[in-house]
Amino acid sequence: MTAVSAPESSPARVAAAVPGWGTLLVLLTGVFITTLDFFIVNVAIPATQRDLHATPSQIQFVVAGFGVAVAAGLITAGRLGDLYGRRRMFSLGLALFTLASAACAEAPSAGILIGARVAQGVGAALLMPQVLGIITTVYTGPERAKAFDAYGIAMGFGGVFGQLIGGVLIKADLFGMGWRAIFWINVPIGAAALAVVRRIVPESRANGASRLDPVGTVLVSLGLVAIVIPLVQGREQGWPMWTWECLGAAAVLLAAFAVHQRRVGHPLVSPALFRHRSFPVGAVVSLVHAMTMGSFFLILALYLQVGRGLSPLASGLVFLPLGLGYFVSSARAAAIAERLGRQTVAVGGLAMALGLGVLAVTSADLGQHGAVAWVIPGLVVAGAGMGLVMAPLPALVLSRVDAEHAGAASGVLSTAQQAGGAIGVALVGVVFYGAHGGVPHAFTAGLVFLLILDVLVAALVQALPKAR
Question: Can you give the pTM of this predicted structure?
């Protein structure tokens, strides 16, 4: 590993330290538990609703409150890391996330649980872009590529195994905690990472950074909230007029944000980020891929639990082949990327499309009574495709970003992923719930829609520049 101290001429100021795998482990701990928390809560919804006597609307906000807070805060949090220190913002976010997890676990009512979930989302937003920012700043050469691969693995594992971990925790009913265990599990993990973060994670920030752009912060935060809330709530409520008004307002707010960033002297998102097409094109690829990930996990869980009558634990076990394919391919992604470069992501997109196609044919043939084990081959192939996309993609997107803008760029990339997840869930919901013929048929229709998105990922990758 190379030393982390930056030369005087470097645009980024980094504390003198030698980053090792301990540094990466602490960073990826934050990535894993925040990603896990986004998915694991879905398993506990029925038990939570019964225990807290929550209304359907309140339960929706238990899920949505976290996502809205994350999406609204990522870009600002990335810039805060550039200005005031990425390790400092990571530590603050991890501390808030850990405390909010304890508050979620002890929530006596749905209202308090919603508030604690929003606080969790703010904490996640603070820490997530710092991880990519720190990796971009303190690692170089092959070590950086390996660190990005590890980031993709951690993020994917949090999503793939969220269903299984949640099912195991609820089934085990540790100390009679029931659904509250899915939040308590974050507390010791977060506390352990906090105990060592200052000692083994180097600090870094941008040299000559001025100050935060308050107008840009308000515009982008409101714009992102105006996108995510109607996408999350719209289908459940039949797309009332307020959802379209929110989306229209979001377009105006984000357009105003873009104009403001070109005129202000200290932009929240520097236009310099978009000079090399690797960043804007890569952000779009990340957004489209994120549209498939969360959507696929959602309709797969609905198919297994509602369509086939499996318990949360049994459903989680079916996710294991998906995780196996993901683990094997992501572990080999760096070696494959050395030979194929950007085409590694294209191969991954096509492999995921193939896996979803196999699943679509299999589920249509099985109907409601065939053996669920027949879905395993399609899941393995789809998981392998995910690994080949997620492991190398961050490195491709951030390869030409100056260290000075590492935090802001990471915030934009993470925001693209969060927005893509919300858009994908909204769109696949229209396809899934609009299909006729029962859950298996709806699952097949949803898979065909997601298959098309994965082919689009492979096509968009061709616009990325070849790796330097």
Answer: 0.80
